[in-house]
Write a structure and sequence with these properties.
The chain is α+β, with helices and mostly antiparallel strands and about 350 residues long. Helices cover about 25% and strands about 20% of the residues.
Length: about 350
């Protein structure tokens, strides 16, 4: 069963994001603000993109990674997000889907990492192979996109690659927008490989090697992250300096923003969101999201090991009720299931059929 959430909550101070796009509100002052301070619930202990550290890690890596493509987000002038699978070029300027499901990509010319190296097809091949070798999550995503684990990338030229699949998939392009398929500066990483650390994992734990908009100034594992705009990058970010600090307490994060000591926070519960909405000088905003939460019955629990129980559970769920009662009154949630549900059955009939499956 999948629940696509209708909104995520963000709190943006009056000195909030400037010219970041994606529907971010215009700040009330200092549109040329050079620094941005974000207080978040948690930060990861490692910056190696092959690590497995949960939601805080995923959020940071998603913000820092440079991928071939990325989600389209909210098109300019649109009131809603583009479909979840809609992608736009980032490190790639163009791509083409081949009849068998493979994709060819032409890389953006002149993109430089923070180490002064220029993006090349070899960087893409190195990054994909490294990530797939080290990350179970990357391998699972590759399976969804039918990306070949044995031979994920073929270098066709200095600025052209082919991403190889084992079969056509509607998810391939969307998977390539995930940070797990971010492109690293292979020369910088290889310079720190050793017999004791052949994948340079120790070095990448505390260094940033993406072809992206940011350079790393400082990192305190699980505590603080300090970034500077990469002056060599092809598109300048809205801020010259970004500081991110982990503050587990939502109340303290809100107090920091209210006091002007931070620019932004998120992850508030709805009670704190209401407080923010009525605090002078703050702007509390709900932002549309294509995020998907997946609920999977744990088959180690004996009843869920029975496929009939799982099917009955799927039938009995009132999807309309869930979609209509999103937290905080947000609308637009959509609930779907990966198990079969007879089309057109009303909720009562579905629950009756569920009962019949278990109690014939």
């Amino acid at each position: 069963m999948r629940v696509s959430t209708g909104a995520v909550v963000a709190l943006i101070a009056a000195c909030g994001l400037a010219a970041c796009g994606g529907g971010t509100p215009t700040p009330a002052r200092a549109p040329a603000l050079a620094e941005f301070i974000d207080v978040v619930a948690a930060l990861p202990r490692s910056l190696d993109p092959a690590a497995e550290q949960g939601a805080a890690f995923d959020a940071v890596e998603t913000s820092l990674a440079g991928t071939l493509v990325r989600p389209a987000g909210r098109p300019a002038g649109a009131g809603t997000l583009a479909p979840a699978g809609a992608m736009v070029g980032f490190l790639a300027t163009s791509w083409r889907r081949l009849p068998g499901g493979d994709y060819t990509f032409v890389l953006r010319h002149g993109v430089e990492s923070g180490y002064g190296h220029t993006l090349s097809a070899d960087d893409v091949s190195f990054s994909f192979r490294r990530e797939l070798a080290l990350s179970a999550t990357a391998r699972a995503l590759a399976a969804a996109g039918r990306i070949s684990l044995a031979d994920p990338v073929t270098v066709l030229g200095a600025q052209t690659v082919r991403v190889n699949v084992t079969a056509p998939s509607p998810f391939t392009l969307a998977v390539l927008g995930d940070f797990r398929f971010g492109v690293l500066d292979s020369r910088a990483v290889r310079a720190h490989e050793s017999a004791a650390d052949p994948r340079a994992r120790r070095w990448l734990a505390g260094h940033l090697a993406f072809y992206g908009a940011w350079e790393l100034l400082g990192f305190q594992p699980a505590g603080k992250l300090l970034l500077r705009a990469n002056p060599r990058f092809w598109r300048a970010p809205a801020f010259g300096l970004v500081a991110i600090e982990a503050v587990p307490s939502a109340a303290l994060r809100l107090a920091d923003v209210a006091a002007g000591e931070a620019s932004h926070t998120d992850g508030l519960d709805w009670a704190d969101f209401e407080v923010a909405a009525h605090t002078s000088g703050l702007r509390a905003v709900t932002l549309a999201s294509t995020a998907v939460s997946t609920l999977v019955p744990d088959e180690r629990f004996a009843p869920f090991a029975d496929v009939l129980v799982r099917r009955a559970l799927s039938l009995a769920i009132d999807r309309a009720a869930i979609a209509g009662s999103s937290p905080g009154g947000s609308s637009g949630a959509h609930v779907a299931s990966t198990t079969r549900k007879p089309c057109g059955w009303p909720a009562r009939a579905s629950r009756r059929r569920a009962s019949e499956m278990l109690c014939p």
